[in-house]
Each structure stands twice: as C-alpha cells, then as structure tokens.
Design goal:
globular; single chain; binds adenosine-5'-diphosphate; 22 strands; 691 residues; binds magnesium ion; OB fold (Dihydrolipoamide Acetyltransferase, E2P); Rossmann fold
C-alpha cells in the first residue's frame, strides 16, 4: 500500500486493479477503497456449511464441494444445455445449465474443484438446475484447509475482467493498513453497552473471518449499521414533523354524528378505534403524520370521510389525493354522498377537466367555497391554491413518493396528514419504512363480509369455469377478468386483454362484455366503469388498471389470468375487488405456466384471506426488492441487512437512533454520523431539517 492510500482513494490506483478492472468494479458500486471494504461477501464456505452429497435430499438448499468428473454440452429437444457431474467421494450430483451455455462451457472443465449451491431436485438422480458455483483453488478449499472462505457477489462484468473471490481477498489484503484508519461513527459507550464490536474489527472479520464467532459478530455489527442509518433518518424525519406547530382541530362537530347515523351499517369497532386515534391526534397543536393501514375492504374510505368532516367542522379545508382517476372519481362519489347530507361542499379535481371547469373549481377552492377537494396528482399542480388547507388524506399512499406527499402538504400551513394503505406491511418493515409515522390499524372486517372463495385452476378446467361464470351472470351478478403483462413474449397487457376480450365475446354470446385499460381516455374509462357499476356490463375484461380501490358490490367473480405472474399482495388486492356485497364471491386463479414456486405461492391465496399473512409470505418469498415499488425498494437496497429476519437488530438500532435524534436533533455533536447520513441518504433527506 502506498503511503497516501486512504478510504477515499479511487480504486483504480490500488495495486492489481487498474483502469479496466476499475470500470468493472464501478458497475458493482465500488469506486473507492471505502466502497471496497463495504463490499461484503455474499456467502461463506467452511466445513460446517458444506454438506456431503450423500446427506442431501430432494428439496434441500445446500452447499457442496466436489470435483468435476465429466462435463459437456448436450442437445435436448430444441435447446442446448450444459451438464457437469460433480463427485465428492460420498456421491454424485448433476449440474445443469439451460442458459449461458457458452459461458459455462468456458468456465468449467473436467477436474475443477467447485463449491456449488442450489436447490436439490431429483431427475434420474440428484441434480441442481442453474446452481451458484465458485471455482476453488487449492489454497481456498475449506475441506482441505479448515478455513472460512468468503464468496463475493460476482457479476458478469467482474468475471469478464477476471475478478474472482481470490482477487477480492488479494486486493483487500494488499491494502490491509487502511483498516487502521477507519474511524468508528458510533461512540464507544454505545458499542460497549449494546455489545457490538468496533467497525474496524467488523470490517476486518467480514473479509478475513478467523472463526465463526467473530464472523457472526462482524455481521451483526454491519447489519446494525445499515438499520441504524435508516432508523436515524426516520427519527430525524419524525423530529422535523413534530417541530412544526399547527392548528389544533379540537371540535368533533355535529356533522359527524349525522353521517354515522345515516350510513345504513354500523362502524366496526376497529373503525371506531382508528377514528378516535385520529381525532385525538389532530386535536393537538402539532401536525399529525399518521398511516392508516387496513386490508382491502376493511372500510378505510368511510373513516377518511368522517375525519374529513371533523376537520371541516374546525373551519379548515381538506384535500384527498388518490393515485388514479377512476379511484378519484369513486372517492368523490363516496365523499359527496355522505358530505352532501350535512351540507359540506365537495369538488373533484383531475387532470383532464376542461379549462373553464377547472378554473371555476380552482377559484372556488382558493376562495374557500369548497371544503373538501378530491383528486389525483392534479391537486399538486402549481395553480392549485387553497384558502386554508388544514387536513390532507393520501389514499393508497405507497403509490406516491415522499416528495409528492410533500408537495400536497405545502399547499397548506402544516396540515395534518392521514396516509392510507391496503398493503399490510409486516411490523419490522413498518418501523423502518414508516418509522417516521404513527400507525393506526384497522384489524377487523365489516361483519357482513364473507371470505372470498379462492381456487387455482389449470387451463383444462376453464370450460367449467366459464359455465360457472355464465350461471353467476344469469343470476344477476357480475364478473371481472384481469390480464397481466406478458413479459417474455413482449406482448403488452393491453394486447393480452384485447385478445382475451375477443375470446370471451365468443364464449359468452348474449352477455355484455366491456374492456378497460390504461390507455383509454378518461371519459371512455369513466363511461365503461359507469356502465359496469350500473350492471349494464356483466363482465369486465381489464388490464391491471382496476387493481386499486374501486368498489362494485355486485361483482362476485374475479378471474385472474396467468395468476403465476402476479405477486401475492397484488393478487390479494385484485381479489379484494369482489366480496364487497352480500353474495358469495369467488376468485379464480388461472395458472398457465406451472412451476413449483408459483404453485406454492398461489396455494397461499387458497388458504387465507388475511392480508397480513399474505404480505408476510410475499415478503419472505420475493424479498423487499420486489415486494416494494421501485422507489421504495431503492430505500431498502441493503448489502447485509435483512428486513425480514433482523427484527431484534432493527429494534436495537431504532432505540439508539431515537435516543441520538432526541438528544442531538441537528447531529452537530455527531459529525461522523451527520456526514455519512448526508452523503449516503441524501435523496431521502428532503423532508428532514438537521440544520
Ligand atoms: P378499503 O378499505 O379497501 O378502501 P372501502 O372503504 O372501499 O374499503 O370499503 C369497502 C366497502 O365496505 C364499501 O362499500 C363500504 O361502504 C363498506 N363498508 C365500510 N365500512 C363498513 C361497515 N362497518 N359495515 C359494512 N360495510 C362497510
Ligand atoms: Mg380504498
């Protein structure tokens, strides 16, 4: 290591790297020495993690080490594949690759020592399809040397410039001295009290573990750090919200009782509980920042209507923002129906209104003539000005970013915020992602709800399904058919839905069928939804545009095509579109591309109607990256932290972060923390004030 090497030294100046490798490393997010130290191994090999081939069984996820006995390319039907037989002295296992055959052919040769990892299948003997594999060299074979070997994530770019696990070990070994200049951003007292190890030791041991104990301690410390910064971010966000004083909305108002009295149903106790929580919160002179979580169909809209009426009784205006026009329309109708009864004025603001109409609405909002405005993103446009916006509702909040929410909030003077979501986020995840918000949960369905009966069917049973749908329609009920995006053929969801629409028109002669999709004009969509709502259309064929929110109580059958392409939470949302009335309802999942994994996933839909259980499973199976939308998953782009299994560490990190945020809201006494937070989490700092 040269004398000047420090944590910020660009990686290209390090011995053994050079410009070409530096470019490849950059694609893996490694630009500096510091980035390299924080590029953690993805797995470790040692005697205790390696299984004998003799001991594995079908279905296991296992790591094995062995020698390639034979290997070669083969032609199977239309496809080329590559096979290698691995032996470890206790047994043999076949490795199969269908993709990237050319690459594998060059990478694997007879006699190679390989560490392989994957799911054991049985097909004329044990086999693994597309195993993870690492070539071992003699100094790095855990069986022979008794060491723990770190295996790094190796992308195709890295492999192209011949960076392998050994290269990482060598490069890091070469700059070993930088470990000595690592400063810990956590105070010693915290490290001791929380039984953590110093950052320096953790980084050393993550790359060069000497024992399983010190490796685990290193993992815990680095996991802690990742959770800690997110928790600190949340704690500071919460601080910032709490600092802003605002109008206390203390009156409950006579309107509220009138609305409740005229509903035709009794609010569930869960609905009453959350209404109470919200009222108590907005009665305080600081802005509410609350997330209302409730499964599809749990009745969040009426809660929003009632608390909106409370806000209006206190003389402020209310804005309600929904992610789609269809949903905004439907909310507008629901709000109007209830609010008209008590003479609260209500308007709709969406993108495609006529200029004159829009101008009239804007003037009325600005003049305070309208109490409640329901709309889409149209609400956050510049020309929308309120007289006295005091309360904001954001429905399906996961569809909006923090910035969009913020842009609506600044239209008032620190209005209270109620965000609503039907995505029941598992608890540990909620305290991270929504750690800055207070949480209200509707954990009970209206009593008249019958669980939707869910069935997985294969293509060959579709005739029976169609017959059943006909019977339902003849009994006066309605059906929805949803088509997903068809990725591999690059056929759009629109094309798939249009084709399905034609097919169904042939099958259901004499029955009225409509087609709705995202590319229709607003009035066209509205017209279709309206005729469906009025039962003039018996069957509605759709792309996933109907996913969120809409409420058609007479719809009793939801048929989802290519169900295996959807995430569980999405299926659950779609299923939530039926079962809203008194008729028994059905959700039919058509599975066309049958795989073990999708079978297992879909079976969960048959088993439960509980959104929390489903979200948990979804998260376990797909991981946070796919569970959340892109904007959200960026936030969770962790290297080592695991949102699903790190519960205790998350709580520990949360406690420490909250203490620090409370004692030092500007982080001036914690310069290292402040620096890293501002550097690495800049994009999430918009709503945080720490100066
Ligand atoms: P979500 O929580 O998914 O937004 P909605 O607010 O759309 O659910 O409510 C679904 C349906 O349930 C609506 O038709 C609504 O009128 C009805 N509903 C709400 N609360 C109750 C209740 N306590 N009892 C019976 N029906 C209710
Ligand atoms: Mg809703």
């Amino acid at each position: 290591m040269s004398a000047q090497t420090d944590l910020n030294t660009p990686i290209k100046y390090i011995k053994g790297v050079g410009p070409k490798r530096a470019t490849a490393l950059a694609t893996a997010g490694i630009d500096t020495v510091n980035d390299l130290l924080h590029y953690y191994p993805r797995r470790y090999l040692d005697r205790t993690t390696v299984k004998s081939i003799r001991d594995v069984k079908k279905g296991d996820q296992a790591t094995m080490v062995g020698t390639v006995e034979v290997c070669g390319e083969r032609q199977a039907r239309k496809r080329k594949l590559f096979q290698a037989v691995l032996s470890d002295g206790t047994g043999m296992i076949t490795l199969v690759w269908f993709n990237g055959v050319k690459y594998i052919k060059n990478a694997i040769q007879k006699g190679d020592r390989l560490a392989i990892h994957g799911k054991i299948e049985f097909y004329n003997g044990f086999q693994i399809v597309h195993p993870d594999f690492d070539k071992l060299d003699s100094d790095a074979d855990p069986i022979n040397t008794g060491t723990i070997i770190p295996l790094y994530p190796l992308s195709a770019e890295l492999k192209k410039v011949r960076i392998d696990h050994r290269s990482f070990r060598r490069i890091i070994k070469d700059i070993e001295n930088v470990f000595l200049i690592i400063k810990d951003h956590l105070e010693e007292s915290i490290i001791n009290e929380e039984k953590l190890i110093p950052l320096q030791t953790a980084l050393q041991h993550i790359h060069f573990p000497e024992s399983r104990e010190n490796l685990y301690a290193a993992i815990d410390r680095l996991k802690f750090d990742e959770h800690f910064y997110l928790q600190l971010l949340m704690a500071l966000r919460k601080n910032s919200y709490e600092k802003v004083g605002t109008n206390a909305l203390t009156k409950s108002g006579p309107q509220v009782e009138q609305i409740e009295g005229g509903l035709g149903f009794k609010l569930t106790s869960a609905q009453q509980k959350v209404i109470q929580e919200i009222r108590e919160d907005i009665a305080l002179p600081k802005a509410m920042n609350r997330l209302l979580q409730g499964d599809v169909g749990s009745g969040k809209t009426i809660v929003a209507i009632i608390v909106a009426a409370t806000a209006v009784a206190n003389g402020v205006q209310v804005a309600v923002m929904a992610p789609t026009e269809i949903l905004a329309h439907q909310h507008y109708e629901s709000f109007k129906k209830q609010l008209n009864k008590v003479h609260i004025s209500c308007a709709l603001l969406v993108g495609k209104q006529k200029a004159a109409e829009r101008k009239q609405i804007l003037t009325a909002i600005n003049g305070g003539k309208i109490d409640v405005v329901v709309g889409t993103h149209a609400l956050i446009q510049k020309d929308v000005e309120f007289k006295n916006l005091g309360f904001v509702v954001v429905d399906e909040q996961h569809r909006f970013g923090v910035v969009q929410r913020g842009n609506l909030l600044i239209k008032g003077l620190h209005p209270h915020l109620l965000a609503m979501t039907a995505t029941p986020i598992p608890r540990t995840m909620a305290i991270t992602y929504h750690g800055d918000m207070d949480l209200s949960i509707i954990d009970e369905m209206p009593k008249n709800r019958k669980p939707v009966i869910t069935k997985i069917v294969k293509e060959d049973r579709l005739q029976n399904v169609y017959k059943f749908i006909r019977e339902e329609v003849e009994a006066g009920r309605q059906c929805m058919v949803v088509y997903p995006l068809v990725e591999e053929t690059e056929k759009s969801d629109l094309a798939a839905a249009s084709e399905g629409y034609e097919l169904l028109q042939n099958i259901f002669k004499g029955i009225n069928i409509g087609l709705i999709h995202g590319r229709l004009k607003k009035d066209e969509k509205d017209a279709i939804m309206e005729s469906y709502a009025n039962n003039e259309l018996n069957i509605l064929v759709s792309t996933t545009v109907i996913e969120v929110g809409i409420d058609i109580p007479n719809a009793s059958v939801m048929l989802i095509e290519h169900a295996e392409r959807f995430g569980l939470t999405q299926l659950h949302q779609l299923r939530g579109r039926v079962g809203r009335g008194s008729a028994k309802s059905y959700c039919i999942l058509v599975e066309r591309n049958i795989r073990d994994a999708s079978r297992k996933r879909l079976a969960i839909m048959e088993k439960t109607n509980d959104g929390f259980v489903i979200a948990d499973e979804d998260l376990k199976m797909r991981g946070p990256g796919k569970f959340f939308s892109t904007e959200q998953s960026g936030f969770f782009k962790h290297k080592i932290a695991d949102m699903v299994t790190d519960g205790p560490i998350i709580r520990q990190a949360r406690k420490i972060a909250q203490n620090i945020a409370k004692a030092d809201a500007t982080l001036d006494d914690h310069p290292l923390l402040k620096e890293r937070l501002l550097k690495e989490y800049a994009q999430y700092m918009e709503t945080v004030t720490i100066s």
